[in-house]
Amino acid sequence: MSAVEQPRAPRSTAKGRAAQRRVIEQALVLFQARGYHATSIREVAQAAGLAKATVYHHFQTKAALLYAIHDVFMETLEEGMAQITASGRPAEERLRAIIHELWRVMVTHRSHVHVFFEEWRYLDDESLRTLKPRRDAYFSFLRDTVAEVLEANGRSLGDEHVDVLTLGVFGMCNWGYQWFEQGGPLAAAGIADDYADLVIGGFRGGAGAR
User: Fold this and answer.
1) Is 89 exposed, middle or buried (0-12, 13-18, 19+ CB in 10 A)?
2) Which of 19, 23, 74, 143 is the most buried (most CB within 10 A)?
3) Is 157 a domain residue?
């Protein structure tokens, strides 16, 4: 059975749902600290205070557990995407909101972000095929916004340039999991504003604008 069919549908009891959350929470801690490959289901079960059989009841394979983490992260991004889309804001405001959303998730789902980018290579092919259209949809969401901001500011750039600029925005935000510290000198919202100012200011162009 492939990982994309996992985890099983949540049990109807509060106890079952709590067990699933506990397993994912402890898997995140261990995967982030030791890596997916070096962590066993037995160790996840011990950390969660559950029998290994209980973990397997909810997640039939370790790959299914990794997929569940990616699924939670994508659902979080998709919820933010839907809210921003529904807001009807002008393009520049949407772009600022997207950058803020990426940094908000950096705070609320820091371990998910880390595992998403560091451990994705261990997903099986079917899981990757399932996640790809969702990742592509979020990329298109940002790319379309970038293109609209450029167009509104009279910037006529080819598709390849728009793609690179979109990847640049993602890179500025996503790489934060490597260095951002909560409680540090700058809050995530402040960093998001700095990055949004830099990106939008650059997209508006100047004397050398193409």
Assistant:
1) middle
2) 23
3) yes
Domain C-terminal end among 63, 90, 112: 63
Contacts of 147 (CB under 8 A, 6+ apart): 162
pLDDT tens per residue, range 116-155: 999 999 998 989 999 999 999 999 999 999 999 999 988 8
| Contacting residues for 4 by C-beta, under 8 A, at least 6 apart | 67, 126, 127, 129, 130
Condensed to tens digits (0 to 9), the pLDDT of residues 64-76 reads 999 999 999 999 9
Residue 147 near residue 198 (C-beta atoms within 8 A): no
Residues in the chain: 210
Q: Give the residue from 176, 173, 188 showing the smallest Cα distance to 102.
A: 173
Tokens of 83: 């809210």
57 plus 113 within the same structural domain: no
Q: Are residues 9 and 88 in the same domain?
A: no
What is the Cα 142 distance to its own chain's centre?
Answer: 13
Do 87 and 56 lie in one domain? The reply is: no
- List the one residue out of 97, 11, 25 whose CA is nearest residue 57: 11
Amino acid occupying residue 15: K
Calpha distance 31→54 (Å, rounded): 19
Query: What is the secondary structure of 83-111 as a DSSP string?
Result: HHHHHT--HHHHHHHHHHHHHHHHHHTHH
